[in-house]
Inverse folding.
């Protein structure tokens, strides 16, 4: 049996603008995980080529159990398997194998569930084949599967999940892991509304085509926030101001720009407002938007009041994480 896991992720700053070349910051969330387990199956009683032979994909969270050879070419899990064999120039094995995928990462909620499941699968398969992969290789294989899910992904999800550390990311460039001078605490609150990233990314693209100048200006403003946040997080302080206040203000500005891009929704706005009112230093949506999750920046002093406020305001799940721990 071979097992591999991958974390979820949050985008701290820069979603959507990152698709158009602006920088973004993202961090892994190890409190949620995807796991792939590869189990060799006993030979079929009917001999080689029987119906139980071959590779079986058992995607438990979505209730799907199917053979690799029956999967369509746009199935991301099947693509992850085929691409991994192709990466090593190996034919798809004749071994009978069950590949079981399990995940505690909510689906279509901006926490990178698709990329995490594929990352775990690619790693487990590479280990099974005795060809461990570098983070960069895993990331580039998973990027191909992300294209099937999202159309035109920037590559940030596969990067932060495959590297498993906070990254400063610019599309098409090698990711830069960043240091976190003082670890900071986030609450991640789920609206419970699934929101496929492909749709919000497509809507932003269509809106930008109508008003290119206005959208480019907003993307640049988001990029400036991401750069400023990177410096602040790496240095850990700003002269004359407290770290959390400054970082929180940047998060709230980023949220306002995402609202203007048209990717927020009343549920996200309510959670962000309630978090701030209960003492969060800042709050923003994270990921594709129009549902999924939002982030609130808290301290040990404000955490429990903000958590309670988020739950009262309708959050379906609240996860605590520390960036840079
Ligand atoms: O997969 P999500 O929902 O976390 O969103 C990814 C971030 C976007 O910038 C909206 C899209 C992308 O490809 O970068």
């Amino acid at each position: 049996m071979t097992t591999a896991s991958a974390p979820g992720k949050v985008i701290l700053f820069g979603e959507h603008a990152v698709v158009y070349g602006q920088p973004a910051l993202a961090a892994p969330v190890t409190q949620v995980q995807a796991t792939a387990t590869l189990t060799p199956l006993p030979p079929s009683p009917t001999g080689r080529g029987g119906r139980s032979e071959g590779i079986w994909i058992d995607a438990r969270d979505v209730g799907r159990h199917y053979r690799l050879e029956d999967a369509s070419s746009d199935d991301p899990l099947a693509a992850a398997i085929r691409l991994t064999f192709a990466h090593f120039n190996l034919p798809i094995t004749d071994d009978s194998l069950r590949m079981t995928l399990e995940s505690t990462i909510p689906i279509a909620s901006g926490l990178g569930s698709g990329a995490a499941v594929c990352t775990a699968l690619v790693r487990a398969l590479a280990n099974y084949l005795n060809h461990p992969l570098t983070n960069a290789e895993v990331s580039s294989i998973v990027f191909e599967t992300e294209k099937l899910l999202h159309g035109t992904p920037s590559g940030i999800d596969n990067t932060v999940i495959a590297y498993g550390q906070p990254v400063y990311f610019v599309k098409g460039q090698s990711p830069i892991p960043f240091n976190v001078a003082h670890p900071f605490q986030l609450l991640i609150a789920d609206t419970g509304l699934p929101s496929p990233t492909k749709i919000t990314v497509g809507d932003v693209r269509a809106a930008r085509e109508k008003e290119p100048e206005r959208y480019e200006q907003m993307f640049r403003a988001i990029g400036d926030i991401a750069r400023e946040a990177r410096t602040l997080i790496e240095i850990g302080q700003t002269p004359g101001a407290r770290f959390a206040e400054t970082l929180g203000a940047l998060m709230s500005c980023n949220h306002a720009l995402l609202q203007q891009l048209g990717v927020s929704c009343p549920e996200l706005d309510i959670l962000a407002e309630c978090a701030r009112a209960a003492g969060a230093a800042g709050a923003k949506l994270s990921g594709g938007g129009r549902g999924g999750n939002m982030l609130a920046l808290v301290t040990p002093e404000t955490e429990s009041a903000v958590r309670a406020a988020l739950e009262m305001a309708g959050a379906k799940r609240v996860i605590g994480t520390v960036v840079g721990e």
